[in-house]
Amino acid sequence: MSFFKRFRKKSPWILHYNAGSCNGCDIEILATLAPKYDLERFGVINTGNPKQSDIFLVTGPVTYRSRERLVKLYTQMPEPKVVIAVGSCTTTGGVFRGMYNVEDGIDQYIPVDVYVPGCASSPQLIIDGVVKALEILENKNQEIEKPFKLFGGIRQVGTKTSRRDMAKKVEPNRSDDDQS
Amino acid sequence: MSALMTLLAPILGGFVYGFERVLRARMQRRQGPPMLQPFYDMFKLMEKRTIIIHALHVVLGVLHFFLLWVTVGAIFFGWNLLYVIFLHLFSLIVLVMAGYSVRSVYSHLGANRELLAMVAYEPVLLLVAVGFFLQSGSFEITAILQDSSHLMQMPLLFIALLMIIPIKVKKSPFDVVEAHQEIVGGVEVEYSGIFYEFLYMARFLEYLFIYSFVFLFGGDSSILGGFLVLIVFFLINLVDNATARVRTADMMKIVYFGAISISVINLVWMVI
Known about the structure:
The structure holds 2 protein chains of 2 kinds. Chain A is α/β, with parallel strands linked by helices. Chain A has one domain (10-178): 3-Layer(aba) Sandwich (Rossmann fold). Chain A is built from 5 helices and 7 strands, in the order αβαββαβαβαββ. By secondary structure, chain B is mainly alpha-helical. Chain B has one domain. Chain B has helices at 2-7, 9-27, 37-46, 55-76, 81-100, 105-136, 141-144, 155-168, 180-183, 193-216, 222-242, 248-271. Classes of the chains: A alpha/beta, B mainly alpha. At the A-B interface, helix 1 of A face helix 3 of B.
């Protein structure tokens, strides 16, 4: 197993999710992947498929609408995985902090490994964050990581671990304030 | 020699895929990933945690890879060309069944498109095989490779083959089957970890399968065959970088009215 461990940081595949961002950070992420900054030289591919990716790049303060998908995508990613919060909104809530419809950053919901600041954060900072995340990825193991909220639990079905109901749905009738 | 080639076929295909990624990056004035990148990806996928939908789904995926491997081996051993084409068809049918066996919508869409693409390119492959038969009197690959170059007698069939290569290697004018931005890879969407690796390697084998058809046009001179493969490889990547994706219906129209009609014209001309 230790032989394959060294290849983790040579082929990180990215899943990019917009949790209610203004698209500023998303444009910078696309610029990072485009020819000028060329993140593919580190082996990075933007897969768009949670089941095949290693790095979860999230932008935007978590809006009430997007939190369910955020947790769902996070639980669908196989371990080892890292989460990068790109932009001020994602790390703290940014200018939207304290507003009635946002959740003040993704670390309210899922564990975050690297915070990338900036509004919008520049491609150089994003590359720096991804390279930092690769160091963290190398020291992780296959243990299942759980979200902080909306966690539905892991079941044992026979000898297999089922993560089918790991992401709980937001119940429509409950008031949003007592979610935790 | 051919046994060794067959055993090393996935590794050979991996080098082809790695070289292609570098070539594509250089065409876009990028540095691109290292040549060995496909192998890094494979080793990384080995120790990811695997998520399985149900057992049949992953078994069909692995079966797809091994059937393709047998197909490529059959080419290296110089079997009958018709066997090769039908074995390849069988391996893709297995993949389509895997696509329909899960409830994911993207998987179903990918399987639909895979079937349509098969309907589009399979007649052309058969017509090319018939062309080789008219030329050398046999479907055996060893017999085809003993004649002199077939390029002069079947130029239109060669162009028809060029038109369907992008469908097979999932390149830009005809990459509706995979369409990463649209249906997230199609059939392969529900695979993860070590089982995705089999589909990833199956892609390398598809490269070897379709480019060996180009090699057959060289006939007994393997230098001409290799030269043709290099030229076609470069051309396909150039077209991939320069064009946008067409819709499935348009792909069918282009292949049916373009490729099939010119290959029939070529066959009629050869018979007369």
